[in-house]
Amino acid sequence: MPDKTLVAWSSLFAGYVQNGLHKEALCLFRNAQREGVKLTEFTLSAIISACASLALKIEGTQLHAVIVKCGFHGNFLAASLVDVYARCGQIEKSYALFAYMEQKNVVIWNAMIGGFSRHAHSWEAMILFEKMHQLRIFPNEVTYLSMLSLCSHAGLVEEGRHYFNLLISDRTVEPNVLHYSCMVDVLGRSGKTDEAWKLLHKMPFEPTASMWGSLLGSCRNYNNSDLARIAAEQLFQLEPDNGGNHVLLSNVYAASGNWENVLMARKYLKDSGAKKEMGRSWIEAKGKIHVFVVGERKHPAITDIYNKLEEIYHDMKKIAHITKIECDLHDVHDDQKEDLLKHHSEKLALAFGLISLPPNIPIIIHKNLRICGDCHSFMKVAAHITKRLFIVRDTNRFHHFKDGSCSCGDFW
């Protein structure tokens, strides 16, 4: 297409982003800049969305500069920028931009509340929710969803009930399946698995795979193997090709020492042909994304990475840190469990960050799965030893590790 119109460029950007081709969208954006294409608010919003999905903080900051240069000042792009800063681990910048905006619509308030929710800033999000009411900016379905998600990940059961009841009594907002899914999560994560089960059966929707998955995960955490089996059976019907569900059930059995059922669950996974997603962690350094998997060997700095990791473990032993071998659910000797846990992808990404990034900036790591208990404990102790701030974004939330503790309060 030698002579692309502005509509053609916009369509390409939107198509890439909607189909999850975020890297391709950013490459297209750079080409558009080189060709001097005039960018619209719609186009810039799509590119910001790509940056947010990839958590590219440098590109996000550059896009902010482009928006200012283009003279765009509307709520539409401001909300996108608030969101991208939060998703890139820069919650302070996100709030600074939010506070700077004089005229804020509900979309901007939602973006900031969502950012606080992802970063476990519970009280800040609750204060914003109350301010919305004071200013007569009425919450919508997205606002309630963010508040329920916040309560779920912070273990705030009574607060979760409060916001859910507000939603039910709000005549301007229709509760949807996502709200009920969040409430099931609120109850399950707090150990109220039977109450979560009852809500699944009395709600005005058919339970989704997400709901059954949430209940199964809660049963794993609270060793409710009977209810876990029921939830797993529902999941296998709804998502027969999702290997993660089989692994979750296997982990429930492993946590209770039922190795016979573990083998049966893993055999079923193998026979079914379902695929388990491999864990990956990535970190940005000098404008480049570095990706790690467990036991990584291909990275050009891998020798230095492993040496740094050994150095950290050596320092940890001085303060009697013990690896949480119960987090490895293989039926092997304890020494082997320790070795398997030692080289998880987020630990390798952290070691790379320590040898690659200046000591005065946070180390921000992203992971495509939930961080395990041992890696969570490791990050807390490593933050204390190195006197650094680590920010880890897993599938649940942002974890801010500083001075030996985590912002999630060990609840995730």
**What is the general shape?**
globular
Largest sheet descriptor: 6 strands, mixed
Give the strand order of the largest sheet, numbering strands 1, 2, ... along the chain. 2-1-3-4-5-6
- Judged by helices, strands and strand pairing, the structural class is alpha+beta
What does this structure look like?
The protein is of the alpha+beta class and 412 residues long. It has a domain of 127 residues. The protein is 63% helix and 7% strand. It has 20 helices and 6 strands. Strands 2-1-3-4-5-6 form a 6-stranded mixed beta sheet, with helices on one face. Helix 9 runs antiparallel to helix 10, helix 13 packs parallel to helix 15 and helix 14 packs antiparallel against helix 15. The protein starts with 5 loop residues before the first helix and ends in a 6-residue tail after the last strand.
